[in-house]
Design a protein that fits this description.
Chain lengths: 372, 372
């Protein structure tokens, strides 16, 4: 064998090894659990983490004030991880509260510490408050993507032009060794919904831009060409269509005192239409409005809040901080093997003594007539 | 000189010649008139052309019925061209009425004939009825781009993925030989607003998709890097934001009997937000609703209808068919040369004996405080 051939063979072997390491790395490739046929996501919205023990809680009962700090947020995450053992933890923005943060890197490290030490994969999008310290949104995401066990990405590989930081997708493959073991049967999308409008004529919050929608639409189309998998989307700021419901048409509550009680951008940037057009996303999960925790269904898509999680975030004294869990379950075939996703359900847990489960509901079923 | 050098020189010379021919070709490069410092656009909305003399008029007075056909539409265009001598004619869709068309190529040839024979550059976007005969939207645009004197394009050069057919932009350069003679000082955008929704969950008309908005936003940004020129956008189906006005806030009328009287898509695809974000487009011109002919201003952008032009289109007996004219005027500097666009005005003409001018109004001025 000539020297050049040897170099080529060594190169091919190294490359194969690299692929094989990635494919077998449980952290890198999300997949359904082969015992239960489930994939579980824990959503943590609006931690508003600042400086740990020194940072006091907002809107808690008088008896809680003295001993309440960011550490209560940390302890709540740890308990949720312990109780749920999720396959993925998603932080949907306002992870740190920039204004009160002395050192944003230290705040992020502390905020995400329970996820890092759990060895569970975790993913982040940014809110509107994260960059209000000394780090830009790009700087924040660059730090996050370098942390242990995170699947967060700065932006999608191979896309030259995209607004924001932290737009990416993750594939959840079927159970190991199964026929769907090497393809996505649950598509997860993460988008940067921005912070504030930079257009002088438009006041208020940011929105998901055409570049991001185009990337989403193209990605969804490519994934659906391979497999008709359902999808879930996570970002921070609610879409204007979150205002389409009332108490008769949602599960949960809408306690935000604002008028309107939905703090979306002041303009409609069309992402809901793009989601409906793409067809795979069955539910959207945001944070931002800490006192709204509902899910409402519009044109086949569930629009869900998680409710506020963090103790340094505004809240309502006596109204528990909370977290949303999503579980996608596979169909069990007659031969005992796992099929496609059969249904997706969600519930919330309150930060009380029992981590009480509330508002358990099915968001989507593969067969529309499936009964519960 | 070596052979290779000679080939290179010949190549460079040929290339320069090619550029020079294109630049001096009045048909290919739109530019402001150097005598008046003006650029005038005639908009023809909803001709609904079918088979010429054999195709009867709709919604005309009883005394007009016997001698009224598509030829009345042709005659109206001819008179408008004669009266206005525009620098560009824009046909904003439903140019032919596919359902009643025996031969779509013959219908298009007849519909656009007055523009072709005028030697004036003309541009086309499609409506929702054009493809209702035997030619697809792609087929229609492919025929159109091959016709004489048209500046219509199938889709933008170098863009791999874009929804629809007939998305393109045209630059209007400054007067010949002036400092702005080789750059766009008025940006024109043409978009395919589609026909009908192809998404089962969304009924009704089509909309401008993320791929098109991304192209528009990128094109606008590139143009504005070179020059802060105002822009105008032409397409067929009104945006949902056309519903933002009442008679106290628009100029013209809203006589459509529908509820709502604005037949936009049933969803908001965000193009208005994208337009506001881009910043250069000062006015949008659509057709589609033949009995609406107003302009209303929202967040710095005028949303204008042209009013129905064609006699085989539905209309209102006794309410004249009409056409919209837009005139962009350059600032005259103290040394007598022309500067940037100083103001953009519009008016309509009715198809009566005098081609009566109505609703003359200023849409945009370079200096916001400029008085009229």
């Amino acid at each position: 064998m000539g020297r050049l051939s040897m170099i080529i063979v060594v190169f091919i072997c190294s490359f194969s090894l690299l692929i094989s390491v990635n494919a077998s790395d449980g952290i890198r490739q999300l997949r359904f659990d082969k015992n239960k046929g489930e994939f579980k996501i824990l959503q943590v919205a609006d931690m508003h983490y600042a400086n740990g023990k020194k940072t006091k809680c907002r809107d808690v009962l008088p008896k809680q004030v003295a001993h309440c700090s960011d550490l209560n947020t940390t302890y709540f995450i740890e308990r949720m991880i312990q109780a749920e053992k999720p396959d993925l933890i998603v932080f949907t923005g306002d992870n740190i509260y920039g204004t009160d943060t002395t050192d944003p890197v230290a705040s992020m490290n502390a905020a995400f510490a329970p996820a890092v030490s759990s060895n569970i994969p975790w993913a982040v999008v940014l809110g509107n408050h994260d960059q209000e310290s000394t780090l830009s949104r790009e700087g924040l995401m660059k730090h996050i993507v370098g942390m242990n066990h995170t699947l967060s990405q700065l932006n999608p590989f191979g896309v030259d032009v995209i607004d924001g930081f932290g737009n990416y997708n993750l594939e959840v493959h079927g159970t190991e060794g199964s026929s769907s073991g090497n393809k996505s049967i649950l598509n997860l999308y993460f988008l940067d919904s921005g912070d504030y409008s930079t257009v002088p004529a438009i006041p208020g919050y940011g929105w998901i831009k055409p570049s991001q929608q185009f990337w989403f639409q193209q990605t969804s189309m490519k994934l659906q060409r391979k497999s008709k998998a359902p999808g879930l989307a996570y970002f921070h700021i609610p879409l204007p269509e979150y205002s389409s419901f009332d108490s008769s048409s949602y599960t949960g509550v809408e306690l935000e005192p604002g008028n309107p009680p939905i703090s979306s951008a002041s303009v409609n940037s069309g992402f809901f239409t793009t989601l409906v057009g793409a067809g795979d996303v069955k539910a959207v999960f945001v944070g931002h409005d800490h006192l709204n925790d509902f899910c409402g269904e519009l044109t086949g898509i569930n629009l869900c809040y998680a409710g506020g999680f963090g103790y340094h975030a505004y809240g309502k004294a006596g109204w528990s901080r909370r977290s949303r869990v999503v579980v996608a379950s596979l169909e069990k075939k007659s031969n005992g093997s796992w099929g496609a996703v059969e249904f997706i359900k969600t519930y919330k847990r309150l930060d009380d003594g029992n981590l009480t489960v509330i508002d358990d509901q099915v968001l989507w079923t593969k067969t529309p007539s499936m009964k519960w």
